[in-house]
Write a structure and sequence with these properties.
Keywords: Antibiotic resistance, Cell membrane, Cell shape, Cell wall biogenesis/degradation, Hydrolase, Membrane, Peptidoglycan synthesis, Transmembrane, Transmembrane helix
Number of domains: 1
Radius of gyration: 18 Å
Catalytic activity: di-trans,octa-cis-undecaprenyl diphosphate + H2O = di-trans,octa-cis-undecaprenyl phosphate + phosphate + H(+)
Distance between the termini: 27 Å
Structural class: mainly alpha
Order of helices and strands: HHHHHHHHHHHHH
Number of strands: 0
Largest sheet: none
Protein name: Undecaprenyl-diphosphatase
Organism: Plantimonas leprariae
Subcellular location: Cell membrane
Strand content: under 5%
Oligomer: single chain
Mean pLDDT: 89
Amino acid sequence: MDFVSVFNAVILGLLEGLTEFIPVSSTGHLILAGHFLGFHPAGDAFPVLIQLGAVLAVLSVYAKRLVELARTFPTVPESRRFVFAVLVAFLPAAVIGAALHDFIKGVLFETPTVICVALIVGGIILLLIDRMPKEPRYTRLMDYSLPLAFKIGLFQCLAMIPGTSRSGATIAGALLMGTDKRSAAEFSFFLAMPTMAGAFALDLWKNRNALTASDAGLIAIGFVTSFVAAVFVVRFLLEFVSRHGFAPFAWWRISVGVVGLLGLLLVG
């Protein structure tokens, strides 16, 4: 591993950790950054494999609540319903993601223009949803029903288009289904755990014969960096969203998409 490769791995790890849980599309940012930096370790698997660092960040921040859920799962119906809600929301992405894996990686991940357009369109939609006058029907995470969770899971499938944003799709879907902003963001955290762990396992298996020792080292660097950055984001995001909503993220998406299109136009 040379210095430039290590530096690029750190940059992409920071991008992953800082953007995974906010509705701006971490994958879109990583693919565009890798495109313009000319940095593609482990091919298109790198952006997915370093996501496990962000997953562990959520696990570390929510460790106490996860232990409590595990402890009360056998005896408390509310805990069982919440765990099943997360699993039900995860199912659509698990099925569709496995079926369309090769198309997503072979076509969509190779088209930066699609990512830029998705960033812009998603930003506009997020702005509209954020400004919609609505009275939330669900303000408590543990009250999410199984049908509501399944609908949110269907929205998550939109994130298979790079640039859409997994958290953005789930949060937007939850808001449209009548949740408040804070609980929508928090449900997105919990849904990220099985979704991203599953994506990591699938990509690792698909690329098991192509990874080199150098790739593994760079992935480890990106993994650790994304973990540290994601811990910061998870700890402070809910309070930020409660105060400012999602408009700042929407404008960021639009700005990155426009800059990305200009960059593709000027330098290819």
